[in-house]
Amino acid sequence: MESDPSLSFMEKLFHLKEANTTVRREVLAGLTTFVSMAYILFVNPQVLGTAGMDKGAVFTATALSAILGSVLMALLANYPIAIAPGLGDNAFFTYSVVLAMGIPWQTAMAGVFMSSILFLLISVLKLRELVIDSIPHDLKLAMAAGIGLFIAFVGLQGGGLVTASKSTLVEMGSLTVPTTWLTIFGLVATGLLMAKKVPGSIFIGMVLTTIVGLITKLIPLPKQIISTIPSMKPTFGVGVAHMPDLANPQLWAVVLVFLLVAFFDTAGTLIGLAEQAGFMKDNKMPRIGKALMADSISMLGGAVMGTTPTAAFVESSAGIAVGGRTGLTALVVSVMFAISMFFSPLLSIVTTNVTAPVLIIVGILMAQSMKQIDWTKFEIAMPAFLTIVGMPLTYNISYGFAFGILFYPLTMWAAGRRKEVTPIMYILFFVFILLLYIINILPGK
Hints:
By secondary structure, the protein is mainly alpha-helical. The protein is 66% helix and 3% strand. It is globular and about 65 Å long. The relative contact order is 0.21. Belongs to the nucleobase:cation symporter-2 (NCS2) (TC 2.A.40) family. Azg-like subfamily.
């Protein structure tokens, strides 16, 4: 068995013995990770479809960008970490940029494309780590938590659990609406699975909710299950073609926020997963440059194909938990995404009531970062709190970023800790003042 050429090739490519793992264990880890993150295949088209994008094209772009990112992570960095379009980015794209700011999705995709170019450039120049290190840890945690609350709010609203109110802005949704109960079932089922630590809880919860919806006829039966891969023609290259739209100054605010979200999302996730897998050495992650490069290239590829920025998926922790330690795990994930591309008809049965519990659960997971914020120091607590509540209450992730960036230097100065504020934070302070002016004062929305 040891003389099998395929096994020796795998050993040479992924250094399985050095990582104290086997092909079988890596394949199992890859399958576990895929099942845990497969929901993005259906949630991403649902979210971006709300912005007016073709769901079939987004489905294909989602799968292909996940394949590209995961293959690059496997071959360049040899890490058991999968990459796919992130929930925070697609929520910002749809609800903040397209719906709130009134920017057409084609123009917004040009902003994604430009931010991906800048993202790749700063990764090549190795400036990414410098900027990440310059922003205080507490604000990074607050940004993650704020995005989590924003995503959860979108899920509560989309699932019918929260509705608009003229007197109180929001109120409890009506329990006489049958589809709202479908959301409740999905939330309870997924929550119980998560509490029991069942691998792939989110995906299983989606399947159970869909089955209940089909049985109760709240969701119509699909006409077919397997089909040819949907064309990306409605979205492919749209961002590139609309690059001239970036003459609108408002778009540069979008570009910056996409850049910042991508910065913190992947970097934080990579470090957390590396800690779990025991890869960290002297508080540093080996080959992090290659891992960031894999993410940067997949983000650029995704922008061309027609999807929002990719990110390292925290669900990779499920695969790591069952023994995944090399890039072979990520490679298996990419193979599974390739196979899944033939199941696009299932998009029709994954309604907002099916995806709403996913958004709420992911929001809960992201909100857990709040526990690490130093709430005992008011100069930290104020900008962190404003960042967190600013995102859901203004229904705009960029405003939450702005609140934190603007208040942090001020409160640190007042507390006599101005030397702890990095020069880059001062630069961002003035940049966000300019961006808020551009967004709210200049015409062109």
